[in-house]
Amino acid sequence: MALEDLYREIILDHAKNPRNSAVLDHIPDTLAHENPSCGDTLKLEVTLDEAGTTIRRIRVQCRGCSISTASASIMSELETGRSVAEARQLARDFISGLRGGDPAGGGQPAASGEGAGPLDTIDELAAFKGVMRFPVRVKCATLAWHALLSTLP
Amino acid sequence: MESMNRAAGTAAAWKGLEAARVGRRLLEDIRADFPILGRMIGDRPLAYLDNAATTQKPRAVIDALALYYERTNANVHRSLHTLGEEATAAYEDARRAVQRFIGAGDAGEIVFTRGTTESINLAASSWGAANLTKGDVVLLTEMEHHSNLVPWQLCAQRTGCTLRFIPVLADGSLDMSILEESWTDRVRLVCVTHVSNVLGTENDVRRLSRFAHERGALILVDGAQAVPHIPVDVRALGADFYAFSAHKLYGPMGIGVLYARAPLLEEMPPYMGGGEMIRAVGLESSTWNDPPYKFEAGTPNVEGAVGLRAALSYLEGLGAAEIRDCERGLSLLARRTLAEVPGVRLHGTAAPESTVISLSLEGVHPHDAAQYLDSEGIAVRAGHHCAQPLMKRLGVQATVRASLSFYNTEDEVMRLAAGLRGAGRYFS
Fold first, then answer.
1. What 3-state DSSP class applies to B230?
2. Cβ-count burial of B92 within 10 angstroms (0-12 exposed, 13-18 middle, 19+ buried)?
């Protein structure tokens, strides 16, 4: 299990330069999302358009490891501009794609028979395939996406 | 400053030894006793520096477990046949070995449990429920492991007692000056860790027990990190309760000990009910067996006791003083070496000789540092170490923790330092 399988270039880039990163003091600590086993915490601000159907802007305050920081950054880029329904679907597919992976199977997602998921079709998310081999880090990778699901109406 | 110079001198002397030893035995021979230490992690040799989480087992312990099932396995205490007698003898022999190991007055004061966590839960739900009422105070510390905190929170919910906390100072020691000020006559129990699993701080249990007893309170000690590294004499310490786990002591998982003074065990109501802990059973009620059996319901973890017994014998073979000297030297060397790594901040300066070392690496999240170290074959722990209140007090979310044992080497310490340098570069 080489380190490079987990920390792909794109992940390290987003970890060192997280996009849409902001200080979100106006969000109380009680509404922060946490990865209790390792101390990642994340605050999320999602702004919808006037109709309330499309995501206009996402801002993230992530204090955590490289995986959680990069995942939050990539999430914020990929989800901005999507409809709420699409955004929710993408989040669910990403989470289940990571979780459904067989840790012993060399990082392949479990065959669903429904065609390729976002881990296969979206480059930035393909970078997270390596995480499937490190089950403890899956929670780091999915933190921001769980946060999005619980923030969206 | 004085003590740091002395410490540096000791570390330098240790480093100069031709061949590292524990007492009379060569370290490389000792390492050969532990099969898992020969493992590769990917293409790197394992450097196991997570001993505070659990320790590795010598062949003698592994063999004792297998031998038990190959030769003497039977249920205990009631069988008249030979195997039953042998298994019972092995179980009770282990109990006596534990009694000797911690200096208890009587084997009846040794209750076998699943581990430290269960031991403390036993004390909280049995002694606590029977003795604590609304307004009573249990005095804990800010450095407690969750296993010596959450059971008391549950107890407080059930009995209405209150929890108060002795604060931790910046160097990782307890603020003992607070003791006098914050004491009230409602304090019934003091709960304290003997050695911190995060900072390695050794608390002055003897002083705390004297203080508590003078004021009519009892003291319960979490000894999980202490028994592997320092000599423990529960009577000299004045402990009313003392808890520890076998798996942190080179023994198997799934078994631990609650020591409690005989008069306390006599009075305490049962914890779990069932077979073994009863004397006479009727439909409506039953009478209880004597301690310690009163607190050992169901078939015990006999293999665990046998494994623990073998671990204690192994440690006796090395010698407690020899182990301590070896670990002290390695720990001092480790701290000195790690302090020289750019960006490393060591937490807790109160215990420079302790095998438990927590650190932060600037700009690198502990999780990432630990992941990087794993790719180098080095096993450490990252996170809050089941001590979230302490993390908060330290002002960090998480730390990297390396925890040493007598079977670790100077080379492993150097690899850790090099790994941290590498992690700093990788994530910068």
1. coil
2. middle
On the question of a cis peptide bond just before residue B292, with omega within 30 degrees of 0, the verdict is yes
- Which of A124, A121, A48 lies closest to A80 in space, CA to CA? A48
CB contacts of A41 in chain B (<8 Å) are: 397
The nearest CA of chain B is from the CA of A77 a distance in Å of 22
Which of chain A's residues have a Cβ under 8 Å away from the Cβ of B146? Answer: none
Contact B52, B32 (CB under 8 A): no
Work out how many CB contacts closer than 8 A connect A with B.
Answer: 49
Report the distance separating Cα B351 and Cα B30, nearest Å.
26
Task: Give B46→chain A minimum CA distance, Å.
Answer: 14
Terminal alpha carbon distance of chain A: 39
Within 8 A of B384 by CB-CB distance, chain A residues are 38-39
Closest chain B C-alpha to A59 CA, distance in angstroms: 21
Q: What is the ipTM of this complex?
A: 0.83
* pLDDT value, residue B416: 98
Give the mean pLDDT per block of 10 residues along chain A (153 residues): 83 96 94 83 96 96 94 97 96 92 46 69 91 88 96 91
Contact between chains at B367 and A40 (C-beta distance less than 8 A): yes
Determine the 3-state secondary structure of B113 from DSSP: strand
b/e per residue, A82-99, with b = 16+ CB within 10 A?
eebeebbebbebbbbbbe
pLDDT per residue as tens digits for the range B174-215? 999 988 888 999 999 999 999 999 999 999 999 999 999 999
Three-state SS at B164: strand
Residue B410: both structure tokens together:
């100077």
Please, what is the Cα angle at B103 between B101 and B109, to 5 degrees?
A: 95
Which residue in B266, B225, B155, B207 sits closest to B387, CA to CA? B225
Nearest CB to B42 within list A1, A38, A63: A1
- Do B383 and A39 count as a contact with CB atoms less than 8 A apart? yes
Of B40, B44, B3, B21, nearest in space to B330 by CA? B21
Stretch (H or E) spanning B48: strand B47-48
The identity of residue B189, as a single letter, is: L
State which residue of chain A sits closest to B382, comparing Cα positions: A38
Chain B residues with CB-CB distance to A1 below 8 A: 42, 375
Judge contact between B348 and B360, C-beta under 8 A.
Answer: no
pLDDT the model gives residue A7: 87
User: What's the pTM value of the predicted model, to 2 decimals?
Assistant: 0.90
